[in-house]
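Forwarding the complex inputs:
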Amino acid sequence: MSETPVSDATVGRLPVYLRSLVDLAKADVSSVSSARLSAAVGVNSATLRRDLASLDITGTRGVGYDVKYLVAAISRALGVNQEWPVAVIGAGNLGRALANYTGMSERGFPVRALFDVDATKVGSTVADLPVHHVDELPSVIEAHGISVAVIVTPPEAGQAVADAVVAAGITSILNFTGTGLDVPDGVVVRQVDLATELQILSFYQQRGTAQHRLGFEYFVDVDGPVLAHSST
Amino acid sequence: MSETPVSDATVGRLPVYLRSLVDLAKADVSSVSSARLSAAVGVNSATLRRDLASLDITGTRGVGYDVKYLVAAISRALGVNQEWPVAVIGAGNLGRALANYTGMSERGFPVRALFDVDATKVGSTVADLPVHHVDELPSVIEAHGISVAVIVTPPEAGQAVADAVVAAGITSILNFTGTGLDVPDGVVVRQVDLATELQILSFYQQRGTAQHRLGFEYFVDVDGPVLAHSST
DNA sequence: TAGATTGTTAATCGATTAACAATC
DNA sequence: TAGATTGTTAATCGATTAACAATC
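Prediction (whole assembly, four chains):
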């Protein structure tokens, strides 16, 4: 076991590494150096090696990292090799879009239940799933072994819904309401805030020359030269 | 003019400050100290003062900051006081959800045009907007003075669409495809990646005790005691 | 053995924050 | 004037990265 804790920055890069590695595996590349992989994802090679080391993932000096092993190890760290059934709270436009989005299941996050408070929605069917009343959260979550809640209600309802899903035993929340959520320790919230993203865009738009380092911008080319790049 | 450049971290906090300030303004609070506002948004007060200073926003020693002035100044910095017409590329579930999402217009980002390549979608109407073929990007973007493109196509199409919107003069992109985009300097891309967010959640879920610092988690109470908090 | 590449130390960088002089 | 709070300096912290000994 490594002494090094895994930093949030490292966790954020893992999905990026994984995607690039899956491409390499598809192209039958068996071994990859930190230099090559890091160039593909636009990260410094020392950072990449340090990230892997913090997960106790090792390579072979003089050779590099085994691609299949890397895919397996990062997948395991990210929990990508198991299913995390999801509940979507809020059956509005966005909630229905998520329920219909095949990417959820493909990525191991199948939507198993939908909830709303609107009497005209409760009882209807979206993407072959019945829309439950929010009051049924505890029983439905229990029944389906749901571990992740995606909150797509209007902002006013966000905190109440968060309280309800936490009370029902949920410890991972993906929050699309603009509101910040107050949750107990041990519950993880990720904020996806469209309005904030757009406002950040308009900030740079307005500033003209966008001297802006992006979250993750990268470009992979397995066969040819590898180019990593960010707008500056 | 301030010497200090505005860091990306600062820009990311501005929308959070603004939302809290709007609440204060609604509650008829005329003046606020950095201590109070920073507590409300869960940020250190020195960080807040530094953020404001980097935008040349000043307060009054011994008094604090004028709320209305702060709202105006941050709004102006974020470009929130003007409209940024948006094009949505991809008329699938998510694209249609965005077109129907009233929050876009409310926040100053009205969806003015929809695009797709699917012949069965082109010509149809979504949220009172005709779905154009992607080939029409240049003319439609020109006609509506569109400055922001939201890409919600399948990942495979992401780069081609990005190239097309950039060629059509767009300099701000909100990218929902999981793919990284290679864009020229001066074009700003914000990545909104559902799969990555979910994978990060499952990482912490799996680790059990989530020792996780959230992007922006905050809690505002204008009247009573102010509590800032993040799950640890 | 010679070349390549890891794993990690030590230097660097940038961002956060404590602390306090300036000043309302 | 006394109290409050800004604006900013200097210290601190954490993350990135250059550099290199270890070793395949």
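Residues 8-26 of chain A form the longest helix (19 residues).
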